[in-house]
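By way of example, what follows is a protein record of this kind.
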Amino acid sequence: MSWASLLLTAWSSRSPSLLLVVMVSRDVGLRVGLEGVQTSMCSRTGSPMEESNLGQDGDIVLGLFFPLMSMYAMEFALEEINSNPSLLPGVRLSHRILDSCGRHPWALLGAFSLVGGDRSTCNTMPVLRSSHVWLNQTWQRTAMILSRTLGPLFIPMISYLASCPCLSDRQQYPNFFRTIPSDINQAKVMARLAIRFNWTWIGAVLSDNDYGRLAIQVFEEEIQESGVCVAFSEILSRETIEEDAIRVANTIQHSTARVILIFTWYTDVAELFLQLAKINVTDRQFLASEAWSTATDLLHNVALSKVASGVLGVAIRSADIPGFEKFLRRLHPSDRPSDFFLREFWEKEFGCTSIPLCSGRETLEGVKKRFTDTSHLRAAYNAYLAVYVAAHGLHSLLSCPDEGSDPTDNSSTCSSPYNITPKELLEHLNKVNFTTPHGEKFFFEGADIPAVYDLVNWKSTPAGSLGMFTIGRLVGSDLHLNESAIQWSTGSTQVPISVCSKSCPPGTRRANRKGEPVCCFDCIPCTDGEVNNETGSHQCRRCPIEFWSNLGHTACIPRKVDFLSFNETMGIVLTTAAVSGAVVTAAVFIVFLHYRHTPVVRANNSELSFLLLLSLKLCFLCALVFIGRPSVWSCRLQQAAFGISFVLCVSCLQVKTIVVLAAFRSARPGAGGLMKWFGTGQQRGSVCFYTCIQVIICTIWLSLSPPVPYRDLGFQGSKVNLECAMSSVVGFAVVLGYIGFLACLCLLLAFLARKLPDNFNEAKFITFSMLIFCAVWVAFVPAYISSPGKYSVAVEIFAILASSYGLLLCIFAPKCFIILLKPERNTKKHLMGR
């Protein structure tokens, strides 16, 4: 392993010293970016290396130790800057390489030696009195140690790989800068992808350090209000990686989550994938952090290809540095005798060592290796930018302000190259804002830069192996993603589904399960009158008052207007009963008309009998007025017809009863003049009088507050009841009360006359008919009040028909029986009981 330090040192024969240190904060493992070359020097020396002191003299010296590609990218940046007459004119940058062997104390020792001018670390490094800027590559812990150590000295640090969000804290690390986005941004990208693809049930595998813990913390904050849940969160520790990988693989196998988020180092992922391959778990979709999304060791491992296929990851943005490939191909060990990295690569590539000697004609022209592939530079491009940041900070510090600038602005004053302090340089780095040679705008937001990431996808290639392809990019807050280019873990372009519970379809709502995450729920159908036309909704919406839910509870539809119609079964039955009653009454009327001269018909005033039959026919027919769609006139007519018809009917019965009583009373001695008060004229007058009272009552009621058609919306159902509403209950009560009064009076009189001597005493039949009449209408009141909608109308029609049939059968059935079937009894002698 190698922790490295890049030192940018201002050096000239006239200047005391100017130091710029660039340190690398990334553990590069046993390999340096050079294919097949092992950094074995540390194991040979066991101390900070002197053999690797590679360098070139100049005015500003850079001390370097990084992964090989980053080192050469910085050298190329220095070459560009030195050849640029408008950037640091009159100052030449150079570099030195120093190895810390991946140990924090040695990195700190190297820092102190460079700041303090210790020669023991590097025998070719010039003596330095003070340091002004450090550019570093170390992991976050080393970066934090160095930043806190150099902070009191106001020495700026610029990292191109330290991405810990903690380093954004300007209170703790005021001297820290970086050319790589904070890990907060890639965690946010992961959350946006989960939301975009509707992955609501995601597993997480994390490294046992701040990298993993802070990432999942940010991820959970981003998904908090979006309905995405973390199914499990497992830790991988390097000290127990094999046991942890087995445990996590079993967790993934038994979890219902199909999308797994992994924030850890690529070596941990390799062990995890190996365990997943052993138990044949190959259908999971993995989301990769930048720590392993571009790991070629994983990508080209055939044993893991089934597990790794379809990986979707966030990667350090890639870029091409024009001219860099030509720079690499010009490299030759003969020109760089102290560059042991290049020497080892050369010996491996061309198979020549010092014995036998290389011919000297070897060249990198035409060599196709990762070393010479500059099409997708990632960390190397960040290192390239770090050098330019340092150069522009120095340039701003050494440049004099334009005329007219604010004289109170300390950063606008120019410094002398003989008197530069790190604090001044720190102020200028905070305000760095420049355009790179390739047209990219660069500036700091505190310690950070605006987020820029590539989105990569591991897809199968025609050769059968896996390849890494860029399918999108995040720039600031803008996410550009070519979804059609993604190959998922299933091998298709169909987005995988990862949910605890499937989204509730329209017509249902979500009901969270007690004690489980919000992503786990049941789908409950909307109740009647409520709808939901959305997928995954938490609640149903009640329909407006004049609407009701359809069968699927997905839309509100207008309520059907409901009333007692002639087309429905109940309406047909009642209509049939009413018409039948009217027909039977008409038939009886015809029979009586045909036998009008017989004693049975003539007995007790045949005129009243015909009038009673006419009123009964009206009672049957008035029931038809209640059936059908209510209108203004039908609502008025039905109650008036009902009230008047029944008063006419009961009045006829009452007069008949009075006539019977008067006839038998007049037969007593001294009562012969009684019948003169109950002649035919008086009987007609009495019926008209009783009926006129009801006519007056109905006229007043219908004039002041008549019944009106009303849409009853209070009843919750799919139908709106259209009925005749009683605007005045008092008026309806008076109409019924008057009918009831006459009926009770008639019942009382008939009851008194029931035992009068006569073979055909009509009073007892009137008694039975009035008993039925009163019983029906007494039962009608509670039934009418408790019946909803059209059923209240049906109850009233039933009461009308029942009472009418009772009167018709009780009074006229016996007479028709004698007239039609027992004509021998239809004589005056028989009726008088002789």
Q: What stands out?
A: The chain is about 40% helix and 15% strand. The CA atoms of residues 264 and 297 lie 15 Å apart.
